[in-house]
Write a structure and sequence with these properties.
2 domains, 6-stranded antiparallel β-sheet, 5 helices, binds zinc ion
């Protein structure tokens, strides 16, 4: 059975990113379909998502954003337009699948952050340090305390190891 693009009715093709199989509108509107579990796992494959930024688009295609879009997998279910971090996405209310128009995937991956959990904590700590020691904030006692707390928590952890 052909799976049809919700945006332009082109037949979707399948590609792999990491171990995730995605439906993409190759040669049509270059949109991407995720099932609801895939969208969060895509961040695990940061190094392999480039293929999603370079899908072929039909230059003659004009997308009509006013017509309702149907879920490629559910029978006659209209996708709902939602805003996620200022990106407009189409979500299926039945299967929770998500349709991203061309270009939105780049925003999505960018916005969802390129830091793993550990790195995000490190980055936050680094940002705190930077803030605390920036010239205007040098005498901000609360910030300094944050740094001291951070450093002492680090020391504690290192002692435990
Ligand atoms: Zn399409
Ligand atoms: Zn659906």
């Amino acid at each position: 059975m052909k799976v049809l693009c919700p945006g332009c009715s082109n037949a979707l093709s399948r590609i792999m990113v990491g171990d995730i199989v995605l439906d993409v509108c190759q040669g049509g509107c270059a949109g991407i379909w995720f099932d609801y579990k895939e969208i969060n796992r895509i961040k695990d494959f940061q190094g392999e998502t480039d293929i999603l930024f370079h899908l072929k688009k039909n230059p003659d295609l004009k997308l009509n954003l006013n017509i309702s879009r149907l879920c490629p997998y559910c029978n006659n279910v209209e996708l709902e337009r939602q805003t996620y971090n200022e990106i407009e996405i189409d979500v299926c209310p039945a299967c929770n699948g998500i349709w991203l128009d061309a270009g939105e995937i780049r925003e999505f991956i960018k916005d969802s952050g390129s830091f793993s959990r550990v790195n995000r904590e490190q980055k936050e700590s680094y940002d705190k340090l930077k803030q605390a020691f920036s010239s205007e904030k040098r005498h901000d006692d609360n910030k300094i305390n944050d740094v001291i707390n951070f450093l002492s928590s680090k020391l504690r952890v290192e002692k435990e190891v």
